[in-house]
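Attaching the record inline, Q. Sequence:
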Amino acid sequence: MEKTICFDLEGPLSPQDNAYEVMKLIGQEGAAIFEVISRYDDIITLEGRAGYEPGDTLALVIPFLLLHGITEEDIRTVSESAKLVEGADYLSEYLRAENWDIYIISTSYEHHAYNIGRKLGIAPRKIICTELDLEKKKRDIRVQDKDAFFSLIKQAEEEVLELYSRMDEPQLIANRLDEFFFRQLHSYGFDVFGTRVIGGERKAEAVRAIAKEKGEALSDVIVVGDSITDYKMLNEVATHDGVAVVFNGNEYAVPYANVGLASVDMRFLQILCAAFDRGSKEEVMEVVTEWEDNRDYFETNPEDIPDNCITDDLRDLIQKQQLSMPYFHNVERADERGRDEIIKIHKRVRTQVREDAGKLG
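Structure, as predicted:
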């Protein structure tokens, strides 16, 4: 029987935050602008703003891409430099060999998502991501308003840069950026949300659509995510008795998963996929709990790791000290204090794997 697994892209499969790196083409100011807007994204997501989904950052940065003449070819060029998370290619080969149906559900612009999918052998039809046509965006700006329009964005850019030193003042950030995105841009007929970013509820919708098309229940699905854009997808599968894995997650994602995996190497997910193949969620939770309760012993005695908790090749690599030991967590049974400890471990590994991008929501 074919099994289904859905991955977020940025974090679980590739450490690069593509839009963040694209904004850096503007210069260091571009990174600061992206970080402020990403903070704004977190603020209004947690506020529960109607009609807003986490990850809409990728729509909000578009006026600045237009201002600086960034092209879709630039996005592709930046994507070409993206690495894969260690072990992601190995895992992809294993999953295909074991008859898994692999999907990517990503906020990433299509140019980046299809590139990473190609590297992993995942066809575009199995990738749900954010479509972007920058040339059309340019054409949609009213000709007579172009100078004033770009002057407005330039002024907003200067104010956003001033906000960079005031990231701990969420109300100030929300007030200024609400004015820009929801009122000033609208007055020029520019619909910043004309770009439909695949984040938040749209990721959950994608998982439901995939399961429905295949005639499967969500309990037959594994999803893997790491950030605020994934929490609704993780929660959707977890509450329907599927396996929701948070991989090197942050505080916005960890509480909504039922399984945690913190590792510099994605191939350890193979252990959970094999357990799911043997006995669905119940077997996965048994393996995860065994690891969580005995990790310290396993680290010093890898030869004693039960066969159902490891594969021969992973055991061999650990014994040769070519792989660092992963952290597995049964998030379902964790109380608030336990979740805080899980988040601390995940954040540490997240920073190691994702570097600068690890600090984004």
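Residues 269-300 form the longest helix (32 residues). The two ends are 36 Å apart (CA to CA).

More tomorrow.
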